[in-house]
Design brief:
By secondary structure, this protein is an alpha+beta fold. Among the domains are: 44 residues, no CATH class; 42 residues, no CATH class; 44 residues, no CATH class. Helices cover 47% and strands 7% of the residues. The protein contains 8 helices and 4 strands. It has a 4-stranded antiparallel sheet. Strand 3 and strand 4 form a beta hairpin. Helix 7 packs across helix 8. The longest helix is centred in the C-terminal third of the chain and has 25 residues. The protein is rod-shaped, with a radius of gyration of 36 Å. The protein starts with a strand and ends with a helix.
Amino acid sequence: MPTATDLGCPTCARSNPPVMERLTDTGSGYSCSHGHRFMDTGELMASQPSKMPLPPKAPVRMLPGYVKTEIFIPGNLKQALDSKFGARLDATIVAICTTLMDPGAFVLSSEDVEQMSKYVAGKRVRHGSELLGEVFAIFQERTNLREQLEKKESVSFSGGLMVRPSPETLAALKQIAANNGKSASQIAGECLETAVKNNWL
């Protein structure tokens, strides 16, 4: 976002007649409204640009219930924040601080996001909503696989006979099989054979 500086354009100042024209910091150099550009800061300062008073800032409208606070941060961080968020900086900081007040909230670094992308098919998660969506997709996939596995765990016998016991019965068979060092299929087969021999059916 272009920012007004307190420097006058030296090229405009040497014109005939001289003109006082403010330089704007474009982020990749300095320029004035007449199209003069200075890409090198050292070269610009060597030309001894004149100083101009900065334009007055528009008064900040205080929202109801808001109070003013002051913090000290590194200058390069302030420039980076202004460059990224511009006029939305105040609202962005309020939103972040409000979120951090939630006891369950936490911040993910870019390194964490890079590691996470390896487990979501290489997709880079851009914000919390996408992270929630990816977690839900993994949960749904795991649930579906579990249901398919439970269906496949029905006990089968030779001769094409397929038995599909209830989950409770299957769990009981597995426990009995584990106690006897056998498989669930073996226990079920022995029980069925005993039942037939003794006319229990």
